[in-house]
Specification:
Layout (H helix, E strand, L loop, with lengths): L15 E10 L2 E11 L4 E5 L6 H9 L6 E6 L2 E2 L10 E4 L11 H11 L4 H14 L15 H13 L5 E5 L7 H18 L2 E6 L2 H7 L2 E6 L2 E6 L1 H6 L4 H6 L4 E3 L2 E5 L2 E5 L5 E3 L11 E4 L5 E3 L6 E12 L3 E8 L2 E8 L12 E6 L5 E3 L2
Parallel strand pairs: 3-8, 3-9, 6-7, 7-8
Antiparallel strand pairs: 1-2, 1-4, 4-5, 9-10, 11-15, 12-13, 13-14, 15-21, 16-20, 17-18, 17-20, 18-19
Helix pairs in contact: 2-3, 2-4, 3-4
The protein binds adenosine-5'-triphosphate.
Protein name: ABC transporter ATP-binding protein
GO molecular function: ABC-type transporter activity; ATP binding; ATP hydrolysis activity
Pfam families: ABC_tran, TOBE_2
Length: 364
């Protein structure tokens, strides 16, 4: 049986299988050979920059656009030929799309009435859905009398009232301020767990995806670049694109040279890094590392030393972020801040100490 990030076993939730999906808008090839399996009860993110096709794939699953080729199955059933309302799939839109002239309760009831459910069943579901999102006490208000976060909760209530087996969330937090985003994303995660819903969350915000999702598919240029758990993608990105998209990455250019039989990655005439056995360096391969994995060392410590000069200092609270020029590239190094510890000054000569197990060798 599948398990969620919190270890809870899930029964009854649906698996989503996307096979060889292509979507064109006229000449534009928007989704290219998408293959993906989303496990029952997973909270899954589509993450990527604007325009890479995330929403297009979400809308395809919901039934609001068509594939040029490929197959989408939910719970083993081919859904692409079904109308949206028969798919057991509920979608929450970025804009919320609430009716301004209807009360909160009537907004939630609307989709149920369209489905011709009996009145008492509609009333029961409206009440239950609003209670679930903590909006029962505001059932008589109009959307204009609600905050952004409250409107978002109504939009979620309206979707879960139809009792979908799959929940699709299209950038649901983008209209909220930073504090509210953190609160509502937690609520969404809790709700998803309680209802045991296979959920896809579309976002271009890596922090959001990392915070609440079990797994992430990173999209770029209409393709899935990598799929994995947040920590695995961060620690083991498969490409420069993914390394750059998930967190801050230092990227050093260089070329492979062999000196006395040893392979070196030559960053400048005076700075070279030994290439570990088993690593393949091809044209376009770069040396990549995270700011917190390196340190500034005066003495001691294991690893490769890169001589550089401090070019910038930012105090971030828990750490100090140094910009250090290594050759012609500036790298960022996060040093944990300790009260009373001396802080280097701009212009100081330093050694960047880079443990060999923190080096990534990546290409585009
Ligand atoms: N109905 C449409 N007709 C033609 N082109 C479209 C249509 N909808 C989207 N596109 C184009 O398809 C590409 C993918 O759009 P999509 O909305 O899926 O991207 P996205 O990754 O969700 O971006 P965002 O984060 O900005 O919403 C974009 O180049 C967009 O301009």
């Amino acid at each position: 049986m599948a398990q969620t990030r919190d270890g809870a076993a899930v029964a009854g939730a649906r698996k989503i299988e996307i096979t060889n999906v292509n979507v064109h808008y006229g000449e534009l090839h928007v989704l290219k050979d998408i293959n993906l399996e989303i496990q029952p009860g997973e909270f899954f993110a589509f993450l990527g920059p604007s325009g890479c096709g995330k929403t297009t794939l979400l809308r395809l699953i919901a039934g609001f656009n068509n594939a040029s080729s490929g197959d989408v199955r939910v719970g083993g059933q081919d859904i692409l030929a079904m109308p949206p309302w028969k798919r057991d799939v509920g979608m929450v839109f970025q804009s919320y799309a609430l009716w301004p002239h209807l009360s909160v309760a009537r907004n939630v009831a609307f989709g149920l009435e369209e489905r011709k459910l009996p009145r008492d069943e509609v009333a029961r579901r409206v009440k239950a859905a609003l209670e679930l999102v903590g909006m029962g006490h505001l059932a008589d208000r109009r959307p204009s009398q609600l905050s952004g976060g409250q409107q978002q909760r109504v939009a979620v209530a309206r979707t879960i009232a139809i009792e979908p087996k799959v929940l699709l969330l299209d950038e649901p937090l983008s209209n909220l301020d930073a504090k509210m985003r953190v609160q509502v994303r937690r609520e969404l995660r809790d709700l998803q767990q309680r209802l045991n819903l296979t959920t896809i969350f579309v976002t271009h915000d890596q922090e959001e995806a990392n915070a609440i999702c079990d797994r992430i598919a990173v999209f770029g240029d209409g393709r899935i670049q990598q799929v994995g758990r947040p920590m695995d993608l961060y620690e083991r990105p498969a490409s420069l694109f993914v390394a750059n998209f998930l967190g801050t990455a230092n990227i050093l250019d260089g070329e492979l040279v062999t000196v006395d039989g040893k392979r070196l990655f030559k960053v400048t005439d005076t700075i070279s890094v030994p290439v570990p056995d088993g690593v393949t360096i091809s044209p376009g391969t770069r040396l990549v590392f995270r700011p917190q994995h390196a340190s500034l060392e005066d003495a001691g410590g294991q690893g490769v030393r890169l001589p550089g000069r401090v070019s910038n200092i930012e105090f971030l609270g828990a750490s100090v972020r140094y910009g250090v020029m290594v050759g012609t590239s500036e790298v960022l190094i996060d040093v944990p801040f300790q009260s009373g510890a001396s802080v280097r000054t701009v212009g100081a000569d330093v050694n960047v100490l880079l443990p060999s197990d923190c080096m990534l060798w990546l290409a585009e």
